[in-house]
Design goal:
Elements (H helix, E strand, L loop, with lengths): L1 E3 L1 H7 L5 H8 L3 H8 L8 H11 L3 H4 E3 L2
Antiparallel strand pairs: 1-2
């Protein structure tokens, strides 16, 4: 199963606001909210790249696969 680790990444970087992350990355608030809640079906690779760039993390920090 595919899971989101965005909540943990945000917490580890002391980012408390989805709205702020959206404004700083240009990624829609809806997408960030869905990732934060682990309630998503797909993610645009450009949006994922923007999040990784801003959060200074790897794709696998945000998108994980549980066996």
């Amino acid at each position: 199963m595919i899971k989101s680790g965005l909540k943990e990444v945000m917490e580890s970087r002391n980012i408390k606001s989805i709205h702020s992350l959206s404004k700083k990355t240009g990624v829609s608030r809806r997408l960030i909210t869905n990732l934060y809640r682990d309630d998503f079906d797909y993610i645009d690779k450009i949006a994922l790249d923007k999040l990784c760039e801003y959060l200074n993390c790897k794709v696998e920090d945000i998108i994980k696969r549980d066996p």
